Structure formats: C-alpha cells, structure tokens
Amino acid sequence: MLFKIVVVLVLLFIIASLFSALYFLAKDKDGGARTAKALTLRIGLSIALFVFLLLGYYFGLIGPGQR
C-alpha cells in the first residue's frame, strides 16, 4: 500500500512541475531559465519514478494482477 501511495505522490509532483513550467512560460518575459528548470525537474522525477517501478517489480512489491 505504501508503494502505491509513493507512486501517486510522485505523479502529483510531476504534474505540479509541468503546470509550474507552463506558468513560468506564460509569465516570464526574459529567457526561460525557470521554465527549463521546472521541465528538468519533471524529467528527473519521471525517470526516478520509472526506475522505482522497475525496482518494485523486480523485488515483488508490484506485479500483474496485484491490488
């Protein structure tokens, strides 16, 4: 159960980072440093989530048909 909660929280952080990048893209007139940082954070979180899911499957914490 804890594994699922962590996955959902990370997904929420990924979505929040995506919307913050959209906000910075719309509001910042100079460059896009904050937009790039927000998108970099989103990519990092996505990769970390993917690795976390792979490790969870490898160690048997998640699997096909499990609830």
Q: Can you give a write-up of this model?
A:
- The chain has 67 residues and is mainly α.
- The chain has one domain (2-58).
- It has helices at residues 2-27, 33-58.
- Helix 1 runs antiparallel to helix 2 (33-58).
- The mean pLDDT is 92.
Average predicted confidence as pLDDT: 92
- Termini Cα gap: 9 Å
Largest sheet, strands/sense/barrel: none
Which structural class matches the secondary elements? mainly alpha
H/E series: HH
Tally of domains: 1
Fold blueprint:
Layout: H1 2-27, H2 33-58
Key phrases:
mainly alpha; single chain; 67 residues; elongated
Entry summary:
The chain contains two helices and no strands.
